[in-house]
Amino acid sequence: LSLSLSLFLSLLTLSGVDDLQAQGRSTAMIDAPHWTVTGRVTRRREHGKKLLFFDVTVDRELSLPLLASSAESSPKRDRSGDARCCSTATVRNTMPTFEGREVPTFQVVHSMRCYPEGAMDLKRFKCLTKLVMPKAVVRVKGKFGRTKTQELSLFADDLQIVRVQPDPSAVVKMLCNTWCASDDDDDGGGGAG
C-alpha cells in the first residue's frame, strides 16, 4: 500500500524569521537542504489534534517484502535451497546529515498546518496519522531544524506511507472473526443440534 500525502512546508507563506521562531522552527531551516529518506517508525506521539511527532530509524539499505510479484519472476531461494514465498525490494538511502554528522535516528514533525488551506480536514488528518504506527515504513521529505525544545527534527513537507503496520487489536479482531466463521462452517450452518 502506498499512500502519498502532499505536505507543503509553510515556509513558503511565512513573512519572516519571527514567524519561524513563533512556530518553534529554527531559522537555520531556511538554508537547510531537503532530505528524502525511507525508514521505520519506532515511536509516535500526538500533540493536540493537528500535530504528530514520530521517530524514524534510517538504514543505508532497507529490504521490504513484496506482497505480490510478477508472474515472470521465480521464487527466490534461501541458503538451504528452499523457495521463499515472496521476493523483496531494496531501498537504498543516503544517510542524512545535520551539522556535519550522520543522523540515523531522528524525530519527524507532521503538522496539519503544512497543508494548504482547505486541502485537509481534521477527521481525514486523524485517520491518515493513525497509519503512522511503530514498525510502519515511511518515506519522508523535509528539512532538518530544531523544535522549541531544541530537539533535532525533520519538518515534513512530503510523507508517503510505504508499508502499514496493522494495529494489533485489529488483527486479533480479524482472527477472532475468522475463527468464529470457521466454527459456524464446521457446525454445518450454525443450527443447534
UniProtKB/TrEMBL annotation:
Signal peptide coordinates: 1-22
Record key words, sorted: Signal
What this protein is called in its record is: OB domain-containing protein
Gene source species: Chloropicon primus
